[in-house]
Known about the structure:
Blueprint: E1 3-8, E2 22-28, E3 34-40, H1 48-53, H2 55-64, E4 76-80, E5 87-91, E6 97-101, E7 110-113, E8 118-119, E9 130-131, E10 139-143, E11 152-155, E12 159-162, E13 167-170, E14 178-182, E15 191-194, E16 199-200, E17 211-212, E18 222-225, E19 234-236, H3 244-258, H4 263-273, H5 278-284, H6 289-302, H7 305-315, H8 317-337
Antiparallel strand pairs: 1-2, 2-3, 4-5, 6-7, 8-9, 10-11, 12-13, 14-15, 16-17, 18-19
Helix pairs in contact: 3-6, 3-7, 3-8, 4-6, 7-8
One 2-acetamido-2-deoxy-beta-D-glucopyranose binds next to loops.
Transmembrane segments: 46-65
Subcellular location: Secreted
Protein name: (Atlantic silverside) hypothetical protein
Amino acid sequence: xxxxxFRNKQNTxxxxxxLPQRWxxxxxxxxxxxxxxxxxxxxxxxxxxxxxxxxxxxxxxxxWARPSLLAASxxxxxxxxxxxxxxxxxxxxxxxxxxxxxCSSERRSxxxxxxxxxxxxxxxxxxxxxxxxxxxxxxxxKQACTAESDCQCECKQGYYYEPDYDSCVxxxxxxxxxxxxxxxxxxxNTVCQICSGSTFSNTSSAHQSCMEHKKCxxxxxxxxxxxxxWHDSVCADCTQLKDAADYLRETIPDFVVYHNxxxxxxxxxxxxxxxxxxxxxxxxxxxxxxxxxAEINAWAASATPAQIRQLPDxxxxxxxxxxxxxxxxxxxxxPEECGLGNGTEGN
Length: 347
Ligand SMILES: *[C@@H]1O[C@H](CO)[C@@H](O)[C@H](O)[C@H]1NC(C)=O
Ligand SMILES: *[C@@H]1O[C@H](CO)[C@@H](O)[C@H](O)[C@H]1NC(C)=O
Ligand SMILES: *[C@@H]1O[C@H](CO)[C@@H](O)[C@H](O)[C@H]1NC(C)=O
């Protein structure tokens, strides 16, 4: 009788996360002739599911394997006694074992435990256990391989299984202005929601949910700029009034991220922020977006109110107008909230 060899060519996944893989099927015929069939089959177990998943394979299995080598039932198979040439009913081997020696009219089938690193999941009469799979790219072992079952893999932290690509894909990051409604799992992508009502998110993140705007009144402060989906409320302490530009300063890092300017634009902004610093200008040409953001944030932290007031003109375009509006807003609210007359001459 012939024997099948099933080989998982790539060291790709086992278990339920079915990543594309090539299988090769070798069939040793009764006279030692060898047939090789290669097919793409997204199942790593030799089970009936797999056979159904691969109609071509099913057909070939039916044609080639007269007695089915792997079957759920019955627990015996028919073989020919080598010495007498009689037909004999042999016992199959249970899951976790393989057939070390076939039966004869005098001897029962001899089964042996699958060696480490191999398994059989069904009653069988294969001469070698199936090799355990290995987890694929961006996967981790969920359940180790045992003699009776192949290992199970799942996507590693930060990744989920995407059936469309049949692979583990990084969780979506909710952009600024959106928060995670449900965090990503090994099975599901992050679900984002727009921060509405009194909530905001000032980070691009796969797990940060929308946060409540702070309530200035809770700490005895006055709100001088209402929070939006991408920045927190800005509060003022009326007993220690500052220039309106000092309140705008707080929102500049969030503003820069929210406006999502491209690298070229960010470089131009940084150049304009440090017009006389030639050394810095030269250096910015090699900086990434996040490094440029850091430059702007550092500038904002130490700029004088007068310098901050120039930022809208320096940004130009819509972003500049937007920032100017925010500043105007603070400028009108500040005296109102703090019960002053006109102007910002607080102290
Ligand atoms: C995760 O995805 C599965 C389908 O892939 C779906 O049935 C299930 O409801 C999802 N769970 C959540 C929490 O969205
Ligand atoms: C986001 O807002 C919080 C609360 O106002 C603030 O503490 C934090 O620094 C902000 N993060 C960024 C990246 O701007
Ligand atoms: C506030 O300033 C405006 C013009 O800037 C002026 O018309 C108004 O009288 C001022 N009000 C007070 C209370 O000083």
